[in-house]
Amino acid sequence: MADLCDIAGALAERERAAILAGLTRPAAEGADACQVCGEEIDAARRAACPGAVRCADCQNDHERRRDRRLRTGV
Ligand SMILES: [Zn+2]
């Protein structure tokens, strides 16, 4: 049975891989417009998050829903 350190290590590794995948993705794969609301993605956000496909508002909303799903399992 995996202990807490194993689980934390696996999560950190997965997170790191996801970040690296995002960083190595060509910038052209990022979106100029949010794929949710269609608004232009702020240049600062695109620079900070290459490959971002949602504007900050929609990303926050997405993460809130994802966190709620993870907490409640719904
Ligand atoms: Zn949006």
Describe what this molecule looks like in 3D.
The chain is mainly alpha-helical. It has one domain (4-72). The chain is built from three helices and no strands. The mean pLDDT is 84. The protein binds zinc ion. It comes from Roseospira navarrensis.
User: How many beta strands in the DSSP annotation?
Assistant: 0
| Total domain units | 1
List each distinct ligand once: zinc ion
Uncertain ranges = none
How is the topology of this model organized?
Layout: H1 4-24, H2 43-48, H3 56-72
The protein binds zinc ion.
Zinc ion is lined by residues 34, 36-37, 39, 54-55, 57-58.
In brief:
The protein is an all-alpha fold and 74 residues long. The chain contains 3 helices and no strands.
Structural key phrases:
mainly alpha, binds zinc ion, 3 helices, 74 residues
